[in-house]
Design a protein that fits this description.
Layout: H1 3-12, E1 25-29, E2 42-45, E3 52-53, E4 94-96, E5 108-109, E6 120-122, E7 162-166, E8 179-182, E9 189-190, E10 230-234, E11 246-249, E12 253-258, H2 259-266, H3 270-280, E13 284-290, E14 335-339, E15 352-355, E16 362-363
Antiparallel strand pairs: 1-2, 1-3, 4-5, 4-6, 7-8, 7-9, 10-11, 10-13, 12-13, 14-15, 14-16
């Protein structure tokens, strides 16, 4: 419509009759609405028609992206209608993608044609580590202490999380009955359970046991083998004296000790150990402990350094000497022997000793009033003719009513 009326007007030499004696103007079609008209599509009119403009510098009125003032992109097209192609050298921006994961770093190149380096190949610049193909915005987060998906968080929702124990006190051991899905080493989680008090960071399996009335190492015992205890002597016979075996404990009284460290010291062979475990089923046993050692018999309460030495063939007082060899032999527990020089079976009243067995020339009977004569002793008959007190009753010869054959 626009071309034919214009030709007719030119052929006839007539144009539209404008008011006020003004001449009509030539307008150019702007079909693509980019504000630039088609030089080959005109219309003469007094007022600007719809979809027409006064200029004629559009080189393609069907494409609004082609007009004067546009950037001439790298597309083999004259985008700015200046008769030149791609002179602005403007192309899409490419980012350096060293690891080839499709995501680039902040280093970029912009221009026409092939980039100067083939590693300029990514359309995005949000790779947080362009040297690791496993790290990019679409990567799966893993338990590795690294931000795999480049979102600023570490190990969140990792695909290799495992079922662990809640570890509220951060001691490395969690509550056996409280589970959580987490990464190994994640705060508040532990692969190991067995914590008997998850609110106390000093209480966990393997902790040092201390004298505090608490089961620090979660083994079911309190204050056993404490690191801050003192050494006490094991007193199995409870006579108040300990043997040479010492164990760490908090105080005198009862202490838990390894069974093999105590009973294994006194017994040889597996039978006793088997019987112990059969009845007690525990690696620890509670034994009496005292502050004083020196007991030479761990299972005889009558034998210890404070005991009296008696005649029984044992070292009762742990002096290293037995019976008569021990000068500390208790007289009340020994036999009194009297010296018998003449060997008549009777000893002197005033010369005696205490012993377990008779010393040489000593007898248990006494009352010999003349230890130099064998015919003078309490068992002899009084003789009337010798002037001696033969039977040691204090009477001599016929003054003794027991004398025989006296006139």
């Amino acid at each position: 419509m626009s071309l034919i009326p214009a030709i007719l007007l030119l052929l006839t030499g007539c144009g539209p009759d404008c008011e006020g004696g003004q001449d009509a103007r030539l307008w150019h079609a702007d079909v693509d609405g980019d504000g630039h008209g088609d030089p080959n599509a005109t219309l003469e009119a007094c007022e600007q028609p719809w979809a027409y403009v006064s200029n004629s510098d559009d080189c393609d009125d069907r494409d609004p992206d082609r007009a004067p003032g546009q950037l001439d992109l790298c597309n083999a097209v004259d985008d700015d209608c200046d008769g030149q192609i791609d002179e602005d050298g403007v192309d899409e921006q490419l980012f350096l993608d060293v690891d080839g994961d499709g995501y680039g770093s902040r280093v970029s190149w912009t221009g026409c044609g092939p980039p100067p380096n083939p590693m300029y190949r990514a359309l995005r610049d949000d790779d947080c580590d362009d040297t690791d193909i496993r790290r990019h915005p679409r990567a799966s987060e893993r338990c590795n202490g690294i931000d795999d998906d480049c979102d600023g968080d570490i190990d969140e929702g990792a695909i290799d999380q495992t079922l662990q124990h809640v570890d509220d006190d951060g001691d490395g051991f969690g509550d056996t009955f409280a589970a959580i899905v987490a990464c190994p080493g994640e705060p508040g989680a532990s692969p190991d359970g067995g914590d008997c008090d998850d609110g106390a960071p000093d209480v966990y399996p393997g902790a040092l046991e201390r004298c505090n009335g608490i089961d620090d190492d979660c083994d079911g015992y309190e204050d056993e083998l404490p690191v801050d205890g003192a050494l006490f002597y094991v007193d199995l016979d409870e006579d108040g004296w300990g043997s040479t075996v010492t164990v760490p404990a908090c105080s005198v009284g009862e202490a838990y000790v390894p069974f093999s460290d105590v009973y294994g010291y006194f017994f040889d062979g597996p039978s006793f150990t088997y019987q112990y475990y059969y009845y007690y089923r525990s690696p620890l046993v509670q034994v009496p402990v005292v502050a004083t050692g020196g007991d030479c018999s761990a299972f005889d309460s009558g034998t210890h350094p404070g005991a009296l030495e008696r005649c029984d063939g044992f070292d009762n007082n742990c002096s290293g000497l037995i019976d008569d060899d021990d000068p500390a032999l208790a007289q009340a527990l020994a036999t009194r022997y009297h010296i018998d020089v003449d060997g008549d079976g009777f000893g002197r009243d005033t010369l005696y000793t205490y012993a377990c067995s008779a010393p040489f020339n000593y007898v248990t009977a006494n009352g010999d009033c003349n230890d130099d004569r064998t015919d003078v002793n309490p068992s002899e008959l009084e003789n009337c003719n010798d002037g001696l007190d033969n039977d040691c009753n204090g009477l001599i010869d016929d003054s003794d009513p027991n004398a025989l054959g006296c006139p």
